[in-house]
Specification:
Order of helices and strands: HHHHHHHEEEEHEHEHHH
Number of strands: 6
Number of helices: 12
Radius of gyration: 23 Å
Oligomer: single chain
Helix content: 40-55%
CATH architecture of the largest domain: 3-Layer(aba) Sandwich
Strand content: 5-15%
Structural class: alpha/beta
Number of domains: 2
Length: about 290
């Protein structure tokens, strides 16, 4: 393990990490000494109980601070990413709200700064790897958190999540809007094409009536307008068959979104693949797991 002679993290940023990882009282998140050691061994192949990390004290928080300030920066980034992923999994499971304002964005900024190579340095480390992983992890946690909301809040939350999801992959999403009493759940841009969005989080799968209604909205717009119908619960086979082929709509369900985020598949590339498959076959809905092999 390589060590740095100068601290990696400014004091003000360390205070932020203290808040994010609950380090104020010498603890780190909900780790015991045993699980803390096991986490570092499993995630980073590091012995966090090594005396070199206890130079300033033996508590979990003091060992973590020493570790973050002394090891090389790519390892610091890997550790922060692993700790954030664990933190979010615990927080979502316990249905706890975020308590640190701007936690995700501030951590991304810190990771980006740590990922910048020193002037003249040669390294095989790619700065975007860490930020990409954090993006997928955070979005997946946001998606899973929606299931904990009440039905009314869940519908609105789903629209907010989709806007964040589209923007995370550079698709210039816009808010939901109304046109003469007609509700459109937003829009985005993909490969210079504009897509209107219909988003549903219902207990039942979407059938042909909802698909035809969305198709009718598109037919009132410019001829080049396309549509994405997102249904968390999916679509009925009968509805897809009755809807037919050759429409201007592609479809995506909740499992599609989860697989994109869980497998690290950029959403813009996934949607492009769906568009191409629709152009080749006429089918509006092809599942992600059927297009991308592991």
């Amino acid at each position: 393990m390589q060590f740095n002679s100068t601290p990696n993290i400014r004091s003000i940023d360390m205070l932020f990490l203290d808040d994010v990882f609950d380090m104020g009282s010498g603890y780190v998140l909900n780790f015991s000494d045993r699980t803390f050691a096991g986490f570092f061994a499993e995630e980073l192949n590091i012995d966090i109980d090594d005396p070199v990390y206890a130079r300033n004290g033996g508590s979990k928080a003091k060992r973590l601070r020493c570790f973050l300030q002394t090891v090389n920066k790519p390892v610091v980034v890997q550790a922060l990413m692993a700790l954030w992923e664990y933190r979010e999994a615990v927080r979502i499971r316990a249905c706890k709200p975020e308590t640190v304002e701007g936690a995700e964005g501030r951590l991304l900024q810190l990771i980006s700064k740590l990922s910048e190579p020193a002037p003249g340095a040669q390294t095989s480390y790619t700065p975007t790897q860490a930020t990409d992983r954090l993006k997928f992890t955070t979005l997946k946690a946001d998606l899973l958190a929606l299931a904990q909301l009440s039905p009314h809040a869940r519908g609105y939350g789903f629209e907010v999540f989709l806007k964040k999801l589209f923007n995370a992959f550079g698709m210039a999403a816009r808010e939901p809007f109304n046109l003469k009493g007609e509700q459109i759940d937003g829009s985005f841009q993909l490969e210079n094409e504009i897509y209107l969005v219909e988003a549903k989080w219902h207990a039942q799968r979407i059938g042909v009536a909802e698909l035809h209604t969305f198709q009718g909205k598109l037919e009132q717009k410019a001829a080049w307008t396309r549509g994405l119908f997102v249904s968390d619960s999916g679509f009925t086979e009968e509805g897809l068959a009755a809807f037919g082929r050759g429409k201007r709509i592609i479809c995506m369900d909740g499992l599609d979104i989860f697989e994109c985020l869980d497998r690290g598949l950029p959403l813009n590339l996934v949607l492009s693949a769906k568009v191409r498959r629709a152009a080749e076959t006429g089918a509006p809905f092809v599942r992600v797991r059927d297009m991308f092999t592991k």
